[in-house]
Design goal:
Length: 197
């Protein structure tokens, strides 16, 4: 009897809140409360379709900074706070901000809406990343593809504007990893496998 198919919720398709986005939009700057609306959409300009939106308010002047989220989910009005915490940056400049997940208490830089609330990914059961749903054959194909074309992507990143190759006179971990990717040569057998699959 064949296995009954399961269709897990994919983190890649969930609405997400990230520290880097909030910082880019100016929500994590010191000072009085800042409020606004975050919108998720898909499609291009004329065909853009709004998939969801939430109201957000940040309070960075409090002793314990937080963001307040306000949105509707399943015809129910949702309003709650997510605490923020910062640690000094390892390069000695500024702070690195994190969410404190309201469910797990874990420190994280990204929250997912896989159910009713924005939580750390470990708070949800049965959720997966898209790559976890690939068959073994597809994973092998993607690995071969990355090996074949990874050097080009690595070169693009290394020579991109503002890419930092060294820190305190030593190569950064990212730079070392990308250099390794540029040195890898794909074998004749791997090329044949790429065409056979």
């Amino acid at each position: 009897m064949p296995k009954f198919p399961t269709f897990p919720t994919l983190y890649n398709e969930c609405k997400q809140l990230s520290i880097s986005s909030l910082k880019r939009w100016g929500y994590l700057t010191p000072g009085p409360c800042k409020s606004g609306t975050i919108t998720w959409s898909r499609g291009e300009d004329e065909r853009k379709e709004v998939m969801g939106e939430i109201g957000i308010k940040t309070n960075m002047s409090a002793d314990s900074p937080y963001i307040e989220l306000n949105y509707a989910c399943n015809s129910k009005s949702i309003n709650y706070q997510v605490q923020l915490i910062s640690i000094p940056s390892n390069i000695g400049k500024g702070k690195v901000w994190f969410f404190i997940c309201p469910s797990t208490g874990k420190r994280c830089r990204k929250l997912y809406l896989a159910d009713t609330y924005f939580y750390h990914r470990s708070a949800f059961r049965g959720c997966m990343y898209e790559t976890q749903t690939y068959s073994q054959k597809n994973r092998r194909l993607f690995n071969l593809y990355d090996t074949a074309f990874g050097a080009d992507k690595a070169y693009e990143q290394i020579y991109s504007k503002h890419f930092k190759k060294y820190y305190k006179g030593k190569p950064t971990k990212r730079y070392s990893k990308l250099l390794k990717a540029t040195e890898h040569k794909i074998s004749q057998r791997e090329i044949e496998m790429l065409f056979m699959i």
